[in-house]
Amino acid sequence: MPEIIDAFERGAQYFGVVAIERNSVTKQFEFGVSLDGYRALRKVLQLRPFDSMPGTKQRYFFAGRYGKVSGPLEYETAIRVEQNRNGKLVDARMPKDLLSNLVWFSEIKDFSEASHLVER
Predict the structure, then answer these.
(1) Beta carbons of 69 and 50 less than 8 angstroms apart
(2) Most buried of the four, 8, 9, 57, 86, by CB within 10 Å?
(3) What is the reported pTM?
């Protein structure tokens, strides 16, 4: 499952950052997103499904389940939120371009497929 790490703006363009693991090696990649995709990623990174104490880190993963819904954020997908040993699936809405990127990251077999992206 790709881990959603960050979403940021740089020079009037929007980017997401995901981490993927293949063969026990983890790498992080930046990829371009639309404004709606950026906003959707920011919302994902603000999900707090657990009672948490300040400073408790949560991790966010694209869980691979999705379906079409109506509205400007036309897809609903499952995001796995982990905090320590606890995990919970939470639904989030996002545009097609962001969903397509997350599906692609979940399906790549080798890091060379992402060689055109900025690696962090």
Answers:
(1) no
(2) 8
(3) 0.91
What CA–CA distance (Å, rounded) separates 39 from 21? 25
107 contact partners, CB below 8 Å, separation of at least 6: none
- Residue 100 gets the label, from left (phi > 0), alpha (psi -120 to 50) or beta, of alpha
- Could you write out the DSSP letters of every residue in 25-63? EEEEEEEEE-HHHHHHHHHHTT---S---TT---EEEEE
> pLDDT tens-digit profile of 35-60?
999 999 999 999 888 876 667 789 99
Q: How far apart are CA 79 and CA 63, in angstroms?
A: 5
Half-sphere exposure of residue 88, counting CA atoms within 13 Å on the CB side?
12
Q: How many other CB atoms are found less than 10 A from the CB of residue 80?
A: 18
**How is the chain split into domains, by residue range?**
3-119
